[in-house]
Design a protein that fits this description.
This protein is mainly α and 405 residues long. The chain is built from 16 helices and no strands. It has a single domain, classed as MFS general substrate transporter like domains (Growth Hormone, Chain: A), CATH 1.20.1250.
Length: 405
């Protein structure tokens, strides 16, 4: 197979557009956390109902990632990406027009469906736009757009705290990605690796007819299981924090403005962590990078429960955000290296789908536990063992050989 990557300008265009799409995905995912208290107040929603509202987009993410990943191996990365972006943009705009709890669930589900379908294509496009020696850095750069977008959403929450201002957040999160679709159509090329694989690889037809071959064939079974285990544990904790952190800060006695500001620090730290981990994973220190990322994430999760002043909360959320986003970015980049081009979309999409189970469980269980009277501190502490399991699963997957293309 021809493994030549495109020109430098083509590569940079692809990476920049993928980063931009990820930014709007992060903006939309954070929008519910930023607006939750105001939506709950306007529509008289309780903790359990808001837990379902947070979870609805994750329920959409699960089939979206699986379908989007598989479709990318059959129809092409670029085509599926544009359809996905249109879907989550429309879903975000629909969220601004909800009228009750059930319409909120429907709007968030379709938003999640589009976001889920986009992610495997973003990962595959970035991984295939550069050489193998820079693959982790490229995927991590794309992923850093998610916390940047989330930070922007959190900042808007600080600057627009009025009870009715939450609608504007979803208009921004919907219109901007839709306006980006013509730019993608004109400025982004289809993956050269994907085109070459479809044209010349005799295994393509076999891979296209059997998902089992993509996930378990050619000795990938154990690697796939390890990746799935780490995704499940990491994203359970990640989404629990992403959706409930502002509400937890309020429960701990932090003001609404400071709670929103803490979310900004969480996501700014996340952007830094995502970029840094990519460079480390492309270096000879990748094993130590995995251990340090997950170990420090568990430690700072614990330390966050001991912080009470606004200054300490800002520092703690910055560090937790940096490490949790580094952990998730690490998983995306590692997964992209373990599946060959002809089945990369399917492998990445399946892993992201499994992770969405955690995205569903995390916010929902947290809402149920809060309704039963458990404290935020108890819930955060209960998430730490999951990070330990994720650490060992990620390390095992990292040590397995990368795909040759």
């Amino acid at each position: 197979m021809d493994t030549t990557v495109g020109s430098r300008s083509t590569t940079y265009t692809t990476l920049f557009l993928c980063f931009s799409i990820a930014l709007f995905e992060g903006f939309d995912l954070q929008s519910m956390g930023v607006t939750a208290a105001r939506i709950a107040q306007q529509y008289s929603l309780n903790f359990v109902e808001m837990g379902w509202a947070f979870t609805a987009s994750s329920i959409g993410l699960l089939p979206g990632a699986a379908i989007g990943g598989r479709a990318s191996d059959l129809l092409g990365r670029k085509n599926v990406l544009m359809l996905s972006v249109a879907l989550f943009g429309i879903g975000s705009i629909a969220t601004a027009h909800i009228w009750d709890f059930h319409s909120l669930l429907a709007a968030r589900f379709f938003t999640g469906l589009g976001i889920g379908a986009a992610m495997p294509n973003l990962i595959s496009l970035c991984a295939e736009a550069v050489g193998a020696e820079r693959r982790n850095s490229a995927v991590s750069f794309m992923y850093s757009g998610l916390p940047v977008g989330a930070a922007v959403a959190a900042a808007i929450g600080v600057l627009s705290p009025s009870d009715s201002g939450w609608v504007d957040v979803f208009y921004i999160g919907g219109l901007c990605p839709i306006l980006l679709i013509p730019v993608i159509a004109w400025g982004m090329n289809e993956s050269a690796h994907f085109i070459a694989a479809k044209a010349t690889d005799p295994a393509t037809s076999r891979a296209s007819s059997a998902v089992s071959f993509a996930l378990w064939g050619e000795g990938r079974a154990v690697t796939t299981i390890a990746i799935w285990g780490s995704f499940l544990c990491t994203i359970t904790v990640f989404y629990f924090l992403l959706n409930w952190l502002p509400s937890f800060m309020l429960k701990l006695g932090v003001s609404r403005v400071d709670a929103s500001a803490a979310q900004v620090f969480y996501n700014v730290g996340g952007a830094i962590g995502a970029v840094c981990i990519g460079r480390l994973m492309d270096s000879r220190y990748r094993t130590w990078a995995v251990l340090a990322t997950f170990g420090c994430a568990a430690f700072f999760l614990w330390s966050l429960t001991t912080m009470r002043t606004a200054a300490l909360v800002f520092v703690g959320t910055f560090l937790v955000g940096m490490l949790m986003n580094a952990a998730q970015s690490l998983l995306y980049s590692v997964t992209s290296t373990k599946y060959p081009v002809r089945v990369r979309g399917t492998g990445v999409g399946a892993a992201v789908s499994v992770g969405r189970v955690g995205a569903i469980v995390g916010p929902l269980v947290a809402g149920q536990l809060l309704a039963l009277g458990l404290s935020p501190v108890q819930i955060v502490l209960a998430s730490i063992p999951l990070m330990v399991v994720a650490a060992f699963s990620s390390l095992f997957a990292t040590l397995k050989p990368d795909a040759r293309n």
